[in-house]
Amino acid sequence: MNVNHIDLNLLRLLLAIDQHGSVSNAGAAVGLSQPASSNALARLRASLDDPLFLRSRDGMIPTVYCEKILPIIRQNLSGIETALQQQNDFVAQESSEVFRLSLSDLGEMMFLPRLAHHVSNLAPKLRMYNIAATRNTLHMALEQRQCDIAIGILNPSGRGIHSQTLFHETYSAVIGWRSDPHNFPTLRNAPIALTAPSATYANDIENVLAQNDLAHNIVLRLRHFGALPQLLNQMDVVAIVPTQYAHSLEDEQQAQILPVTVPLGEHAVKMIWHQVTDNDPANIWFRAQILDVFGA
Hints:
Blueprint: H1 8-20, H2 23-30, H3 34-48, E1 53-56, E2 59-62, H4 64-85, E3 98-102, H5 105-110, H6 112-122, E4 127-130, H7 138-143, E5 149-152, E6 161-169, E7 171-176, E8 192-195, H8 205-211, E9 218-222, H9 228-232, E10 238-242, H10 243-251, E11 255-257, E12 267-274, H11 281-294
Parallel strand pairs: 3-4, 3-5, 8-9, 8-10
Antiparallel strand pairs: 1-2, 5-12, 6-12, 7-10, 7-11
Helix pairs in contact: 1-2, 1-3, 1-4, 2-3, 6-11
């Protein structure tokens, strides 16, 4: 017995022969010519090593083996066809879909609260998890659906990657809320604290600073932003941070922005996803919500 070459159309023909009692009528029912139907039945007989149907005065009748497998095939084939034919709709208000994001710790602070608030008003049952894939593993994480969407200053490469720019970000220099800005007229002699996570956030800042002869000023290197506000208020250092975050710190009186030029230019903050989720209605809806909240 060899079932490796049996496809669904052959099984549909098997059921049709049982229903119509005729190979030609069964073929017509499934869209096959009489020769094609006879050839298909021959393939089934060879693969299953059984005649399957025998001729009689009343038409084609199933063998004992065929009688045993027909109900199982009918039930399972019906389930498969139902599964394949069901509408792939997404109703946000009723869905309990889980969306997995990849955000750096700063992205989690800056993006997740606004996005969660927006989405919860439209779809209260939806769930969002942040898995924070590293830059080196992001392509694989998206491809294997360990995460659905990444947001950050990212330029991932690889087959199937899609991206859309949300906005452009610049960098600002900040100091502690109680520090004296007159002590830092420029960055040339300022002690610098640099935060460049390995997750979904740009880690080439130090290289740009080196090109501007500022790398020797770096006195602290941090992997996460969580400790930065406390650090700024305990040390006279200048932190280089995204401007959006700098304004957030200043609004909360945790830091003040220095009126100096940070030579890092603009960077595109992108939404990244993979081809495997490109046509999924749930992910299409979710990407639209991200654009509504963060799109320029």
